[in-house]
Design brief:
mainly alpha; 4 helices
Length: 93
């Protein structure tokens, strides 16, 4: 007979976020729950899963061009040129 290993707190949080995301289709709640899991358990495997799910939500709700523009702005800021906002680059679909 197998004994079930009790779920960790991170696993319970991930389970709730995943249910909100895929069963309930409540993206706002899922987004918040995944972010809370990342904040409370950054070193757990579920944090990595949450990062991927957050990216899935972002890809669902933010248009490609907006994502690219935001990434270019972040890269410019990290390169020490926050005043040099990049010109938009059109994506080829």
């Amino acid at each position: 007979m197998r004994t079930q290993t009790p779920l960790t707190e991170a696993a319970r949080q991930y389970e709730a976020a995943y249910a909100a995301h895929y069963s309930e289709r409540d993206l706002s709640l899922a987004f918040r729950l995944y972010k809370e899991l990342l904040a409370s358990h950054p070193g757990e495997p579920e944090a990595g899963f949450s990062r991927m799910q957050l990216q899935n939500i972002v890809n669902t709700i933010v248009p490609k061009q907006d994502r690219l523009d935001a990434q270019l702005q972040l890269a410019s800021a990290r390169l020490g040129r926050p005043d040099a906002a990049p010109a938009p680059i059109a994506l080829v679909s």
